[in-house]
Specification:
The structure is a homotrimer of 343-residue chains. By secondary structure, the first copy, chain A, is α/β, with parallel strands linked by helices. The first copy, chain A, contains four helices and 40 strands. In chain A, the strands form seven sheets. A twelve-stranded mixed β-sheet of chain A has the order 8-11-14-17-20-25-28-31-34-37-39-40, covered by helices on one side. Chain A has a ten-stranded parallel β-sheet with strand order 9-12-15-18-21-26-29-32-35-38, with no helix packed on it. Chain A has a five-stranded mixed β-sheet with strand order 2-7-6-5-4. In chain A, a hairpin with a 5-residue loop joins strand 22 and strand 23.
Chain lengths: 343, 343, 343
């Protein structure tokens, strides 16, 4: 389907600068823009490309001003990235979606399956499961006994959901994710051998949660590991037993959160962050990549980096000082010599 | 089923303090305790909750003394966490378990299957496999040719075990784990292109090993990657080719151990530790979270942290000094000025 | 099959030192060598074992000279590790390989399957897929709609490949890898809630790519995440949306590369490296384990370590200085006292 700049601007409530009749039928990246496509400029690092892109339409923030001649038609909107997202969502919504229950799946007779559900080949759904309306479960996923998956959730292929776990509404769980494996709980005996502590709790995912590929969220020893509404978890993230993640917190790839830690709402974890166990992390805390969080965070809204963590400004100054430390040592040795000479 | 404080105390060889006739039928966490449940106090950080918990029974260490009035009945035991574990194990042991071989599995005719085995739907078991007695294999797991799984082991869903690997007795392998993929071995040619070194060895897991969700243990180039008896490996851990892990070592989530490293017995790795290749790590070494181990550890029983690793006391002092380094630099500049002024 | 030292030396174009008639039928590690096997010496750390190994034949580099009496027969070659690789490849090439299409797979009628293809049980292949000649797809792998897998590629079990992705020729994709899950892209609204940015691009893998177990390579938001020819990616690696990895780059386990970063050719990433998003990394850059790359790398061929990254020599000196920092602080306090005394 083709849309003109005029049509798109109307849909986005934006303003056309340039030829309002130019049409596009696909999206492209600004640095690789092709004829007949729409692209966007959001990150200022890419501003230069707007003058050379072959894309016919570029979404820009409304305060964007051109500094050179430009061949593309611009559509000025409140927020270019959000506007792009709106267009991408429109494009997705007109794609055909999977429906029907594969004859090659294995669904327990006691499972209750809602309306308009897709179950792919080689999916297993255990005893007493409740699968809501409009749920999509892709091939080779295993849903163990007594699991509840609420309405409008999508579970991709090769996912494992252990027994008694709960998946909220409008969740997206990507391939290879494991929800509800045993927490890492052992009691050492006198000889230093580990006896397993049975993990009889579960995992409860709220609504609008997204879980990345090959992420692992362990079941609680007792009670629930809780991922609250709106939490977004990236690939290869580890959430240990009895952790609680507050609403609308985002956790980037390869971050790990150790057992029983409670994370407040609207926190942000960049990639490869580690958080020790049994901590309380105040709401709206932000952690830079590779941060190691070793103690409670009591004040809301702080920004941290380093391992062990420190305020990000401190981390930046300390990192520069660390890089210069060999030269600083030379200076100290010299001062020491001078002092000794004077004595 | 309901049990009274008196019955539980007898089972645990403990002492009741309070109403010995109060009954419970479930477990709860001390901070969320509900009527009719049993909880425990082991970590002193949670001591305050014992005075407010709604749980009817609390397991405590025998040296615990109350500092306020308390409504719950206490059961004093040698070790509250171990006693809890014993009760949880009892609860697990009375749950029904999976049995039978699914008609929807795919088992090679040359595979030998023991007695009382569970094989879920869409499991594949390859040629010449030997599956011991009481083994449980959950749906969608693939066991390739010539794999041996010894008695009483449990393999959860979506696990992949490559050919020729050996799984010991009483192992627990969680969903998504991959046992025996090729090691990362390449020989670069003159142009810097990589030629694959075939990886013809295997992985041998000892008895009482637990492997976490989405962990990866690579096969040896030649010979075996060896995980000894009693080793516990958490989620998303990477064990490279030809590594050997000694008995009763515990490795927390997202740790990675590079090729050919030998780890002694009863070591402990916290989360996100990295260990370089071709190292020997002495027994009972302990590594804090995010440690980067870059050289042999020759003395047994040391505790390390930092990247590169150093003794943990040194790490703590260095970390504090690093945080203060910007101020220290100011001080050095000032001293330098003073010295120059005096010259 | 048995081969004599003479036969092996001829195949490798090497020189026998010792008994040319001794025969072997298997490989072993030098430190565990058994009678009737061939081993190799490449890493000088293992030189001592050559005098005690029970292996009958040892491949050595041609400049190797014995310093003690030695019982094994040596074969001197240009490069012992490459020669071993050649022998291992020979051994692999004579193993029987899997063929045929399992009746228990689920292949869409619109999919085109090449010649001499292996498709294991419980594999799903979606609509309009193109599977090349000599491709092997192991059990429980899901290949979604419109995926292309080119000739001679091997995809192990429990892999998930999302729709529209492209796998090149002679790829090896290990178990649990996820190719093409959604990138981690969200636009926060005014209340700090995340709206998903649809990820409508794909992943394109070049030729001769190897992807490790449980690795995750996300699809692009728009356009393609690109892994160029000859790239080798280890287990549990995260490649985010819109990343481009240049030819013949090697990425070791648990490394993560954030969104839209472009990595040049022939780079090397050791384990657990993190690279921030939207960066350009010059060709032939080398990053030590646990490096945190926080800015563009503009010069080719540099070697870096540390978090944030610095040149490796700087990192080593800074690390030593950091370890000594507590003592250095004492020295500074003492100098300060001396200066004050003098004033």
């Amino acid at each position: 389907m083709e849309f003109s700049a005029k049509q798109i601007a109307e849909f986005l409530n934006g303003e056309v600068v340039g030829n309002q009749n130019v049409t596009v039928n696909n999206f492209s990246k600004i640095e690789q823009g092709e004829k007949g496509t729409l692209t966007f400029l959001s990150n200022p690092k890419y501003t230069n490309f707007i003058y050379s892109t072959q894309a016919d339409i570029v979404l820009v923030d409304k305060d964007f001003t051109t500094e050179q001649e430009i061949s593309a038609t611009l559509i000025k909107v409140e927020n270019a990235y959000q506007a792009l997202s709106k267009l991408l969502s429109l494009a997705e919504s007109i794609k055909p979606t999977k429906t029907g229950i594969s004859q090659k799946s294995d669904i327990a007779e006691t499972a209750k399956i809602g309306e308009n559900v897709f179950v792919g080949a080689f999916v297993t759904i255990g005893e007493n499961c409740k699968i809501g309306n409009n749920v999509k479960i892709y091939p080779n996923t295993q849903i163990a006994d007594n699991v509840q998956v609420k309405d409008n959730s999508t579970i991709y292929s090769n996912v494992s959901i252990y027994e008694n776990c709960v998946v909220g509404e409008r969740n997206i769980i990507h391939s290879g994710a494991v929800i509800g494996a045993d927490g890492f709980g052992f009691a050492p005996d006198e000889q230093g051998r580990y006896n397993k502590i049975p993990q009889i709790g579960n995992v409860v995912l709220g609504n609008d949660v997204e879980i990345g590929a090959n992420a692992a969220i362990d079941r609680a020893t007792i009670g629930s590991t809780v991922i609250a509404d709106g939490v977004k978890i990236d690939n290869l993230v580890q959430i240990a037993h009895n952790v609680e993640i507050g609403e609308h917190t985002a956790i980037a790839a390869q971050t790990g959160i150790a057992g029983s830690t409670k994370v407040g709402e609207k926190c942000v974890f960049a990639g490869q962050v580690g958080v020790a166990g049994h901590l309380n992390i105040a709401e709206r805390s932000i952690f830079g990549a590779q941060t190691g969080v070793t103690s409670h965070i009591k004040e809301a809204g702080g920004v941290y980096q380093g391992s062990p963590h420190m305020p990000v400004g401190n981390f930046r100054r300390s990192s520069i000082a660390l890089k210069q430390l060999p030269e600083t040592l030379q200076k100290i040795y010299q001062m020491e010599r001078e002092l000794k000479l004077k004595n």
